[in-house]
Amino acid sequence: MRLREKQKVKRSFGLLEEQFRRYFYQAEKKKGITGETLLQTLECRLDNMVYRLGFAPSRRGARQLVRHRHFLVNGKIVDVPSYQVRPGQVISVQEKSKQLDIIHQAMKSAREDLPYLRLDKARMEGELLEIPKRVNIPVTAQEQLIVELYSK
Prior knowledge:
The chain is α+β, with helices and mostly antiparallel strands and 152 residues long. The protein has two domains: 1-44 and 143-152, Ribosomal protein S4/S9, N-terminal domain (Ribosomal Protein S4 Delta 41, Chain A, domain 1), CATH 1.10.1050; 46-130, RNA-binding S4 domain (Structural Genomics Hypothetical 15.5 Kd Protein In mrcA-pckA Intergenic Region, Chain A, Roll), CATH 3.10.290. Helices cover 45% and strands 11% of the residues. The protein is built from seven helices and five strands. The chain has helices at residues 2-13, 17-29, 34-43, 46-53, 59-67, 101-108, 143-150; strands at 71-73, 76-77, 90-93, 117-120, 125-128. It has a five-stranded antiparallel β-sheet with strand order 2-1-3-5-4, with helices on one face. Strand 1 and strand 2 form a beta hairpin. The two termini are 14 Å apart.
C-alpha cells in the first residue's frame, strides 16, 4: 500500500526513483510535516506550474515545452523542468512561442482555478502567489504512507 502511494505520486509528477528519493530527503530536512513539504516541493516545479497554469495539456507536454525553451521566469529563459518556482515569480510564454497551437489548445481547455496561482490569459503569464497548502494541492495521494515507507 505504501509503495503504491509512492508510485502514484512519482508517476503523476513524472519523476524517476532517484529524483523522487532526493526530493523526499530534502523535504525531510526542512521544518514542518515531511509529507506536506514533499508535495509542496513537487507542486512548485516549473513543469508542474506550466501544467497547472494551463499552458500545456499534460505534465509530460509541459516538461517538453520547458525543455524547448518556450517559457520565461521573471523575464529569463529557463529550460530546466525541475526548476523550483518561488512565490512572486512570474512564468510567461516566450514571445515567439505565443502562436503555438499546443499552448492555445491547452489554454482553451482550462483547468480549475487554484488559490495559489494567478493567471493572465491575455498576456499568457501566471504567477505563484504563495507556497500551496496541502488542502489546495489537487493530488489524491496519502503522503503519510510515503513518509512511512521511507522511514523503515
